[in-house]
Automatic annotation (TrEMBL):
Residues 593-604, 612-625 have a biased composition (Acidic residues). It comes from Labedella phragmitis. Signal peptide: none annotated. This is DUF2813 domain-containing protein. Residues 1-49, 273-360 form the Endonuclease GajA/Old nuclease/RecF-like AAA domain.
Length: 625
């Protein structure tokens, strides 16, 4: 069984939105985009224990906090889920009366269309199960209520049956806990301390493991309680407690008619109820380098997260991993990259379906491009845009997957020609943040740098990132000779494209930065152990300084040495920065802030400059690189 489609109405920050899922789906987006809301919505519908929490929902779970309308009538939260790929056993258990024909390609039900049932044997058409959660405010009880239902068939209710029409679900058949256990939804939240997951409270992970492991849990509780009662020696026989007990018994006897004998007062290890045992029994763990057992909540955050994850994998194994719908929020929390990759690979391999949210490159890298859904808000709607694999060739993605992972998370992407440029622009942004009032740093704006191999390869990434729905900018050196038409066309796909009048970033820096800044830079780096064999004499003539700087920069190109970024960092004012680079960053900043363009626009419009001929027209074919 798999989650194929989700519709959310009036739940938290979402008024009405739909999301489509693959066998494995990675949800990415900025903070408050709605990733956690999606997981919580699925939990409301499919989580076996979720409806047993009180309250099921509250005021803040309603869109804009509005749980009654202008007429005082209750507003309903509704979450619809379509489950597909049901096994024969699941179809038998749910009953054919609750199933509908689903067209996978069209992502819609077709059984009520003319001739729809006749397509039941077509490729991509199968029986699916629609279920839903409905919640609202109950004025009579002054409380919030919610329940889950089969969405098919629609109930036939007599219009005079006011009570049924007014009831939650209006006659829909309830979707019970036993049904949800068949769905196998397991949810690992992001903000987790293990305080409940690793306890034995009802619905906890350990309690679920005990229940799934087989019979005998009832006997376990009664046997444990009996052993606590019959401890030898009894707790009350500890000398200090025995003395207190005798004193209490004698004093209580003055005011209360106590049972005769020494056993009229006693100390026991607990309340001797199942519920109390559930609350006080704790898992103790010893982790290297110590062999001392301590309560699980005294472990580090990362260890607790992995303990919780380990319990979930046990549950998945007990249910049969391939029948589990596994939702996991931000597996990267407090985990090093190698562990993030290991956890993610395990989930993708062992779980029937995984729905993961993440802000981590090592996690994102493990997913195929067509499994990634990028989330963003459009006013009241949550939009989930899957990556179209036809726009991004697999080889291009895999070759640059670490950079793609960061770009996927970004608000916009600045594509540059080489690793030197990739460190220069952030360095210029650092200085502008310090000296230019109102400027917002690239990192704070959510702009990711994407370094290409150079040699005119910047242009081909414009169509790719535009196809991903990103704001996209490009900057490159002056080309050698005439550009081919496909590069001219690709340049038009960027929101803006800047072509340098120079043939190398080093020339831009040497010519655009004052001599005094060069001197500060050379005085600083000439003492570094990785400084090239190009002696710096402070008495060197001003006209010879830029040439020496250029030689040093070319000898130490790239991000490994980052000498170009060091030069930029020695700029103390905006006037010391290369005007060309400032124009690029101020142009991006003003576009993101929705303000008029700032500064001059040399070469910003003439995307076909550099002997490339007439200005290009926008090509209609957005085939990926």
């Amino acid at each position: 069984m798999r989650v194929r489609h989700l519709r959310i109405q009036n739940f938290r920050g979402i008024e009405d939105s739909e999301i489509h899922f693959k066998a494995h789906t990675l949800l990415v987006g900025g903070n408050n985009a709605g990733k956690s809301t999606i997981c919580e919505a699925l939990d409301l519908v499919l989580g076996p224990e979720r409806l047993y929490r009180r309250p099921v929902i509250d005021e803040h779970d309603f869109y804009m906090g509005k749980y009654v309308d202008g007429n005082g009538e209750p507003v309903e939260v509704r979450i619809d889920v379509v489950l597909t790929q049901l096994t024969p056993e699941e179809r038998r258990r749910f009953g054919d009366q609750h199933l509908r024909l689903w067209d996978e390609a069209a992502s819609e039900f077709i059984d009520e269309d003319d001739g729809g049932v006749d397509r039941s044997g077509d490729e991509g058409v199968d029986w699916a199960l629609p279920v839903c959660f409905i919640g609202r405010y109950d004025r009579d009880e002054d409380d919030f209520v919610g329940d889950t239902f089969f969405c098919h068939p629609e109930p036939i209710v007599d219009e005079t049956d006011v009570e049924t029409l007014a009831s939650l679900g209006a006659g829909l058949v309830p979707f019970r806990r036993a049904h949800k256990r068949l769905a196998g939804y397991v949810y690992l939240r992001a903000l987790r301390t293990g305080s409940r997951a690793l306890s034995l409270q009802r619905g906890s992970l350990l309690d679920t493991i005990l229940r799934l492991s087989g019979d005998g849990s009832a006997e376990m509780w009664s046997d444990t309680l009996a052993k606590l009662t019959d401890l030898d020696p009894a707790v009350g026989d500890v000398p200090q407690l025995k003395e207190v007990r005798e004193d209490l018994r004698e004093r209580l006897g003055r005011f209360v008619n106590m049972t005769p004998g020494d056993n009229s007062a006693a100390f026991f290890a607990s309340d001797l109820t199942r519920q109390h045992l559930r609350e006080v029994v704790r898992l103790f763990v010893a982790t290297q380098p110590s062999d001392h057992l301590v309560p699980y909540d005294k472990q580090g955050t990362g260890s607790i997260n992995l303990l919780v994850f380990a319990l979930l994998t046990i549950i998945a194994d007990l249910k049969g991993s391939q029948s589990v719908i596994f939702a996991m929020e931000e597996p990267e929390i407090a985990l090093p990259p190698h562990t993030q990759r290991r956890v993610t690979r395990y989930v993708l391999k062992e779980m029937g379906q995984s729905i993961v949210t993440s802000h981590s490159g090592p996690v994102i890298e493990q997913f195929e491009p067509d499994s990634i859904v990028m989330l963003h808000r459009e006013v009241t709607k949550l939009i989930g845009t899957p990556i179209d694999p036809s726009k991004v060739k697999r080889k291009t993605y895999l070759t640059n997957k670490r950079q793609f992972a960061e770009a996927i998370l970004a608000r916009g992407v600045l594509v540059v020609e080489g690793s030197t440029e990739a460190v220069v622009f952030p360095a210029v942004s650092n200085v502008l943040e310090r000296v230019h009032h109102g400027y917002t740093h690239l990192d704070f704006s959510g702009v990711s740098m994407f370094a290409t191999p150079g040699d005119g390869s910047v242009a081909k990434f414009g169509p790719i990132f535009k196809a991903l729905g990103k704001k996209t900018w490009g900057a490159c050196d002056k080309p050698n000779g005439t550009l081919p038409q496909d590069q001219i066309d690709d340049r038009t796909k960027f929101d803006r494209f800047w072509e340098s009048p120079e043939k190398g970033i080093e020339d831009v820096l040497v010519k655009g930065i004052p001599v005094e800044t060069h001197r500060r830079f050379l005085a600083d780096v000439s003492g570094r152990p990785d400084y090239p064999h190009l002696p710096y004499d402070p008495q060197i003539k001003d006209e010879d300084v830029p040439a020496l700087t250029g030689k040093v920069l070319k000898a130490r190109k790239g991000e490994a040495y980052a000498y170009a970024a060091v030069l930029i960092e020695h700029c103390e004012t905006e006037a010391e920065l290369p005007e060309e680079l400032v124009d690029v960053l101020l142009g991006i900043d003003s576009e993101l802030q929705g303000e008029p363009e700032l500064g001059a626009e040399p070469d910003a419009v003439d995307v076909a400059s550099g002997d490339a001929g007439d200005e290009a027209t926008v090509a209609e074919d957005e085939a990926g690189a």
